[in-house]
Amino acid sequence: MQPCPRCGFAVPPAARYCPACGLPAVAAAAPYAPGLPAYVVNSHAVGFLILSFLLSFLWFRINRVGVFPLGFVGALVVA
Fold this sequence. Notes:
The chain is mainly α. The protein has a domain at about 40-79. It has 2 helices and 2 strands. It has helices at about 45-60, 70-79; strands spanning about 1-5, 10. The longest helix has 20 residues, at about 45-60.
């Protein structure tokens, strides 16, 4: 059993919270390897989404349509 960092009470290994003070028991996280990204963003998908939104916005403005009839989905369909 490890002691609670807040109150020092012995916390059982299977406990999710300290029985004395209620502090959440945090499991040891996997070590972070420096140099590796924490998450990966697909820049092609993000770029396509932005480009399709802008192109459809321009298409609606050029054709004098006042409102996006389909919203964000319309941006993907039109592009």
